[in-house]
Design a protein that fits this description.
alpha+beta; six-stranded antiparallel sheet; 23 strands; about 50% helix; elongated
């Protein structure tokens, strides 16, 4: 037996107007040969289909077009296509709603205040025809398509209610003597038919506006990727659209630019802000051989890299795909709603017919008139499709809002069971701590040394691209220090930097490794202080000339003011709180102590975090993890 490949893709759907439509599309696709599963998201007008090689996207489209729906398959960017379709649909809805409202207003005034005015019926008839046949035609077209395929949807209710009210009124306008001869007034209900059309168009317009707002999180993620990039060509460089980049292209990235695709650095050096992926706020140094990822932001340096993953293969594209799938996923409650929606319209029509019969039997002298109006009322009340729209829209808004705040929700079911969580794992950097390095203390060997050499320290650090150097520079500038002119600046990878002042003296700024290499000793006071700071989870920086250490600096990642109280609130709800961090045990212990945590693990790799989650789950815990970046 041949092994068939399984494909999983999201396609925009056209022609869906209600939850019953979404249910029909899902059913049609699910029972199509070659389709493993189909999940329709009515709120975004998309469907996530899992299918085999037995059928291709064109075959999927053909299966739907046979029953009046459409599938857009020739689209590289689903989100842009959906957005474009939504905008066009919204513009048409707005135009139809405005047109219907303008014509309905005089009909309403005549029907409410001048109901016995002779020409009123004819004026209302003339105005009602374009409201139903032009501005409200979508309901009748959709109802007819459904009827041809022996199905019904919400548009069937609108078409039936307004159509019956209009035909009844038209008969009374053309043949009033039929009722007059029987002792009844020939009432017309043009205002009912046109007001229903106008209000439902207005409701659909608001729904469409709400739908377009729910995709803002995806737009923000997509905005992380630049539209164009610069590649190296034979005679220099060339700017091309992102869609034209090929694997193996040599790409140039300058200071402040977003990295367009995934790849490997081939020349140059810089620091890259990868916080959107890792959550680590301190930019990562990139040199030859290092990996870079689409959507991350280059800082001060320039470099070239070879494109390795482009288009849908990039890490950013995979993240966008996961968010799309999550927004389209169904919570258990939504599955229940879908079952109800599938039988909702036939049930409403049955109730309407029953209402008509009861009024005809027990309605007295105006039985027919009352029977028609009350049967129409049942159809009208059921028209707004809140049943089918509320749950998927709420899921989309919830998952969208989460993504805007860097919370990626795996699927709707995860969202629904979140209230059952009884164990929470917290990342340290950027979650418990602020994620922004700041200088907490500078200890100089003497006041005279500070006065003489603080400008030199600022002169050196202002030339450095390292994020910790930024923290030092900001602190010195805030304290009124002016930078001295420094020359022969050199960056020493993994250790620090060095430079000369105008007098030719050499100075170094860096970690203890640099200190040992230079064979410089600390006096006892500075040594004790450096050890104390390290125990308090501070990063210690040393500033020295060629013969002695002139001063030491403590750089800390401050704990957020809200962290301690938030952790306490979780504990008060009987939720077990754990901290996992890649930092050393000393730093982890200091942070845990300050925020009141007893359960923590240090020097943890990303893969170990997932093992820790599985271990807790095996003990029956429902686990949530909180971390910045994409955990």
């Amino acid at each position: 037996m041949t092994n068939l490949s399984i494909h999983k893709e999201t396609f925009p759907v056209t022609g869906m107007t209600c939850a019953a439509c979404a249910s029909s599309v899902e059913t049609i696709l699910t029972y199509t040969d070659g389709v493993k599963s189909a999940q329709v998201n009515f709120a975004s007008n998309t469907v996530l289909i899992e299918y085999t090689d037995e059928i291709d996207p064109e075959g999927l489209s053909a299966a739907l077009s046979a029953v009046g729906y459409g599938l857009i398959t020739a689209s590289e960017n689903v989100e842009e296509t959906v957005t474009s379709n939504q905008q066009n649909h919204y513009r048409k809805l707005k135009r139809d709603t405005l047109g219907a409202a303008v014509l309905t207003l005089p009909i309403f005034v005549i029907g409410m205040f001048f109901m016995h005015w002779g020409p009123g019926s004819w004026i209302s008839l003339a105005l009602a025809i374009p409201v139903l046949s032009v501005f409200g035609s979508r309901f009748f077209v959709s109802a007819w398509k459904q009827a041809k395929n022996k199905t019904v949807n919400m548009d069937t209710l609108v078409a039936l209610s307004t159509g019956i009210a209009f035909i009844f009124s038209l008969f009374n306008t053309l043949f009033p003597e039929f009722w007059i001869s029987r002792g009844f007034d020939p009432h017309v209900y043009y205002e009912a038919a046109t007001v229903i059309i106008t209000f439902i168009l207005f409701g659909k317009m608001l729904e469409e506006k709400a739908k377009s707002k729910t995709s803002s999180a995806l737009k923000n993620l997509m905005g992380l990727q630049p539209k164009t990039l610069k590649i190296v060509v034979e005679h220099g460089e060339k700017e091309i659209p992102i869609s034209e980049v090929q694997k193996g292209n040599e790409i140039i990235v300058r200071p402040g630019e977003k990295i367009p695709v995934d790849g490997q650095v081939t020349s140059g050096k810089s620091f890259v802000d990868e916080s959107m992926i890792s959550g680590e706020p301190i930019a990562v140094e990139k040199s030859t051989g290092e990996k870079v990822f689409a959507g991350t932001i280059n800082q001060k340096g320039s470099f070239q890299f070879k494109a390795e993953k482009v288009g849908s293969e990039t890490l950013l594209s995979q993240i966008i795909k996961r968010v799309q799938e999550a927004q389209g996923s169904k919570a258990p409650v939504q599955k229940l709603v879908d079952k109800i929606a599938a039988i909702f319209v036939p049930t409403v029509i049955a109730i309407s017919i029953l209402t008509f019969i009861i009024w005809m039997v027990f309605g007295g002298e105006n039985a027919l008139s009352h029977a028609i109006l009350n049967a129409v009322a049942v159809l009208v009340i059921a028209c707004p499709c809140a049943l089918g729209l509320a749950t998927p829209t709420a899921i989309m808004v919830g998952i969208g809002k989460g993504a805007e705040n860097n919370i990626l929700i795996k699927d709707a079911e995860s969202l629904e069971i979140a209230h059952q969580v009884n164990a929470i794992i917290l990342d340290k950097t950027g979650t418990i701590t602020a994620g922004k390095p700041t200088v907490s203390t500078i200890k100089w060997k003497s006041r005279e040394i500070e006065t003489e050499f603080a400008p030199v320290l600022l002169g050196i650090e202002s030339k450095s691209e390292h994020p910790l150097a930024d923290a030092v520079s900001k602190n010195l500038i805030q304290n009124g220090v002016k930078p001295a002119v420094c020359e022969d600046f050199q960056s020493l990878t993994g250790k620090g930097v060095e430079a000369k002042n105008q007098a030719g003296q050499k100075f170094s700024v860096g970690n203890r490794k640099l200190l040992l290499e230079k064979q410089l000793a600390l006096d006892s006071e500075l040594e004790t202080l450096a050890k104390t700071w390290s125990e308090q989870a501070e990063t210690v920086i040393f500033f020295a000339n060629e013969t002695e250490v002139l001063g030491i600096l403590a750089i800390s990642d401050e704990i957020k003011p809200s962290s301690k109280s938030a952790i306490q609130k979780l504990k008060d709800k009987d939720i077990a709180v754990y901290m996992l961090t890649g930092d050393n045990r000393q730093t982890a212990a200091a942070v845990a102590k300050e925020v009141g945590l007893t359960d923590f693990k240090a020097e943890v790799m990303p893969s170990d975090k997932s093992d820790f989650v599985k271990n807790l789950q095996s003990k029956g815990k429902i686990v949530a993890m909180v971390g910045d970046g994409i955990n």
